[in-house]
Write a structure and sequence with these properties.
Layout (H helix, E strand, L loop, with lengths): L9 E5 L2 H8 L8 H16 L2 H4 L4 H6 L1 H7 L13 E5 L6 E4 L1 H10 L12 H15 L10 E6 L5 E9 L3 E5 L8 H8 L5 H7 L5 E5 L1 E7 L1 H14 L8 H13 L5 E8 L4 E4 L15 E3 H4 L2 H9 L4 E3 L2 H7 L4 H8 L4 E9 L2 E10 L17 H27 L7 H16 L10 E15 L2 H30 L3 H19 L5 H20 L5 H11 L1 E2 L4 E2 L2 H30 L3 E7 L1 E8 L1 H4 L6 H26 L8 E7 L4 E6 L4 E5 L4 H9 L17 E6 L2 H16 L3 E9 L10 E7 L1 E4 L5 E4 L1 H9 L1
Parallel strand pairs: 1-7, 20-23
Antiparallel strand pairs: 2-3, 2-8, 4-5, 5-8, 6-7, 9-10, 9-14, 10-11, 12-13, 13-14, 15-19, 15-20, 15-21, 16-17, 18-19, 21-22, 23-25, 24-25, 26-27
């Protein structure tokens, strides 16, 4: 059986030709008899078994000549390093092993009989493309196809270990076969822009059309800590409280970081108002300090020593032997509680943001001595990311609480208020008749047509990060100038060290804002720089004046420069305010045309929902002409909101683009006001598809591209039915004649969303109306305006 039965651009031949050639160079080396002797031995084997040079094409041939191969590779697998090095001689992107070190064999044996060796972050298409990349590289093209490859191998305790491979390709040769095509520079240019187009790669490099002769050496090293830390960060970023598997993955990550298969992870929140530790309000997160309790006062939940270490010193508290600690004080609840849960050793780590204590990380083990003050230091790399995640979770929880409050207090829209009054009257009548258990029923509006639209601020996250980056760079530069001035006046080594750190922070920021960039700089400023400035400003002179100017530029609460971020925040606020004002004013005229339900929300932009139908108006007057009219009104309103944004953009302290979208749903649905949630929602499983599309469609890509459907200067009208397309094309032609919309119209297909397929979109240019001196209107597209700005 050949080494690779599936598609691959090369036929694989295990050959030791280049290795033997390297030994032949030793024959002229008279100064080292040992090298010459080894070279003669290797060359003799190759001459006796010429197939080792010509190439072996299947595994059985390799096994038949394994003793000779072992002799050829003896220098590459030094016996004295066999127990330490994790090394294999193998084929590229292939699990077939020609020879391996004893440590590698031990690792594979401990993984179990059913373990299959395979590269974890590699699929068949990428294997094919990487094979083609090797050919291009060996043909003289500067193709950098290197990327980290990993083996995921469980150890004897069942903990997944991650081994990174480092390839040595000194002993391979690539040759053209009779079916191989000539590769031109233009072919390479095309391939460089189409990495994931497997059909194109197979066209340029037909399967098995080239010959691979040789073998590769791969050294593996244990990268479990690095990979586990990366997975930890990724898990925190994508954490979903509804994901019941999250905490199991969390346990696995910490087990890998500590290399302890039986440890578990818990967490408890801190309630500052009541000075208590509380359970996290998600079912899958445990707290070993609280055990079965929902909350407990901090001083009674912890012992005096742990309370002082965690809350006052804000340091890790490690208990290596719970039984020993309990024996010294049998009445201590803290240790008794742990032992009741079969916890024999533990580490408790405070999660705090400066003086603001947020919660407690709990790592526990059923084994004495496994967790201690020494391996507690492994948490130093973890805690900054956990802190950011806890802060993010708290902010999300506070936002959810605000949403609940708003929902509870939101007034009912006038268009549907009549039905709530009718239900209230029914409840009152029933109560008068003695029905004590009567309750307010959900309000349902059947056969209504939904309309949804949004004007979204494009790239708001990137814009905010850029603003933060600029403010931090500005502040670091001002600090640098002051310290340089101080250093001229009195040269101290600590000033040089501060300047070195400032340069390092600046270089990191210029490469991009990372998750912990702001926190690291803030810690440096608050803990080192500002105390120094407080000391230096006591002196009279220029230095004190510089420090005063610097302090005056800081935002009092944060002690940070808040110039670009303030511009960004004000710009978002102004955009939302203007868009909402335009929409509210337009909505008044729309209600006069025909009553309908309307609600809008401010996020990073403004979005709105509308429902129209007979069950809302309660009059026998609804006709689909009113739906069509509202759709045309909505498209026109979006044009006017775009124009309002353009007028506003000249005044914005931080320029931001917006992109508009309308979602078309061509069938009626039922809307239910859920009394338990105090909000309107679509009713029924099929209708829920509408809500799914609403939440995801603005992030959708055009099929076959990496381009988002929503773009500045265009309105995207998303739909699924041909009749919707015809209807909106009529509206577009009308608004083109009214000079609301430009001539450029495109119809695109969208990539499938989860559980939603077959969506299309019409994208049409918006015309921006610009008054001239003679009060005549001139009309420009978004591209025209950008061209004018750049010229």
């Amino acid at each position: 059986m050949a080494f690779l039965e599936e598609d691959f651009p090369m036929q694989i031949h295990v050959s030791f030709e280049k290795l033997v050639e390297s030994y032949k160079t030793y024959l002229t080396d008279d100064s080292d008899e040992l090298h010459v002797k080894r070279a003669h031995r290797v060359i003799a084997i190759a001459e006796e078994y010429p197939e080792l040079i010509n190439g072996l094409t299947n595994a059985q041939q390799v096994r038949n000549l394994q003793p000779q191969i072992d002799l050829l590779l003896a220098d590459l697998f030094s016996d004295i390093l066999q127990q330490n090095e994790i090394k294999i001689a193998c084929l590229p992107f292939n699990e077939f092993i020609i020879k391996s070190s004893r440590r590698y064999e031990k690792i594979i044996k401990e993984a179990g009989d059913d373990y299959q060796v395979e590269i974890s972050n590699f699929d068949k298409d990428h294997m094919y493309i990487m094979g083609c990349s090797i050919i291009l590289k060996m043909s003289g093209y500067k193709i950098d196809f290197r990327r980290p490859f990993f083996y995921d191998i469980p150890d004897a305790d069942g903990i997944m270990r991650y081994y990174r491979m480092l390839y040595n390709a000194d002993y391979i040769n690539i040759e053209k076969g009779p079916d191989a095509l000539d590769i031109t520079d233009s072919d390479v240019e095309e391939l460089l822009d189409n990495f994931d187009n497997i059909d194109l790669w197979k066209k340029k490099f037909p399967p098995r059309s080239w010959y691979f002769k040789g073998f590769v050496l791969a050294n593996l090293y244990d990268a479990t800590s690095d990979v586990s830390l990366s997975e930890f960060k990724t898990s925190l970023l994508k954490y979903d409280k509804s994901d019941v598997d999250f905490i199991d993955g969390f346990h696995n990550i910490f087990q890998a970081i500590f290399n302890l298969p039986e440890i578990k992870v818990g967490f408890s929140n801190y309630n500052e108002e009541e000075e208590t530790l509380e359970r996290v309000p998600y079912n899958n997160v445990e707290s070993f300090v609280l055990n079965a309790e929902q909350k407990r006062a901090c001083k009674s939940a912890l012992c005096s020593g742990s309370f002082y270490t965690i809350f006052t010193q804000k340091q890790f508290f490690a208990v290596s032997d719970v039984e020993r600690y309990l024996s010294s004080d049998p009445s201590e609840h803290f240790y008794k509680n742990l032992l009741d849960q079969n916890i024999k050793s533990a580490i408790f780590a405070p999660i705090s943001d400066g003086d603001n204590f947020l919660g407690l990380l709990e790592i526990v083990s059923p084994n004495k001595g496994e967790l201690n003050s020494i391996n507690a230091n492994k948490l130093l790399d973890v805690m900054p990311y956990l802190l950011d995640s806890v802060k993010r979770s708290r902010e999300q929880m506070e936002n959810e609480q605000e949403v609940i409050i708003q929902k509870e207090c939101t007034s009912i829209h006038p268009s549907v208020y009549w039905k709530f009054r009718k239900e209230a009257k029914r409840v009152m009548t029933a109560q008068i008749d003695g029905e004590a258990s009567v309750s307010f029923r959900d309000i349902i509006f059947k056969e209504v047509y939904p309309l949804f639209g949004q004007v979204d601020i494009k790239g708001s996250s990137n814009a905010r990060n850029t603003a933060v980056q600029k403010d931090l760079l500005l502040q670091l530069n001002e600090v640098k100038n002051i310290i340089e001035f101080a250093n001229k006046d009195q040269q101290l080594p600590v000033y040089e060290e501060f300047l070195y750190r400032i340069v390092s922070f600046t270089q990191d920021l210029e490469e991009g804002l990372q998750v912990d960039s702001e926190r690291g700089i803030l810690n440096f400023l608050n803990h080192d720089v500002h105390p120094l400035f407080d000391h230096l400003k006591k002196k009279e002179g220029i230095l004190a004046s510089l420090i005063k100017e610097y302090n005056d530029s800081l935002e009092d609460a944060m002690e940070l420069i808040y110039k670009n971020r303030k511009d960004y925040d004000e710009s978002v606020m102004l955009i939302n305010k203007r868009m909402a004002a335009v929409l509210d004013k337009k909505q008044e005229e729309a209600q006069r045309m025909y009553p309908h339900f309307f609600e809008r929300f401010k996020t990073d932009g403004v979005e709105h929902n509308m429902y129209i139908g007979e069950s809302i108006t309660r009059e026998n007057s609804f006709n689909k002409i009113y739906l069509y009219n509202l759709r045309l009104w909505q498209l026109q309103a979006m044009c006017e909101m775009e124009n309002a944004h353009y007028e506003l953009s000249k005044e914005l302290p931080h320029p931001l683009d917006v992109a508009s979208m309308i979602l078309v749903f061509n069938t009626s649905l039922s809307v239910r006001f859920r009394m338990d949630e105090k909000r309107f929602d679509v009713d029924g499983t099929y209708n829920a598809r509408y809500e799914v599309v609403k939440k995801r469609v603005d992030k959708a890509y055009i099929k076959g591209t990496s381009e988002r459907v929503t773009q500045p200067g265009k309105i995207a009208i998303v739909y699924s039915q041909k009749e919707d397309e015809r209807e909106y094309m009529r509206y577009i032609k009308f608004l083109q004649a009214k000079q609301y919309l430009g001539d450029t119209v495109e119809i695109v297909e969208l990539q499938d969303l989860q559980a939603v397929t077959g969506l299309k979109a019409i994208r049409v240019e918006v015309l921006y109306k610009i008054p001239t001196k003679n009060e005549m209107k001139q009309y420009y597209t978004y591209d025209d305006l950008i061209e004018e700005i750049r010229s």
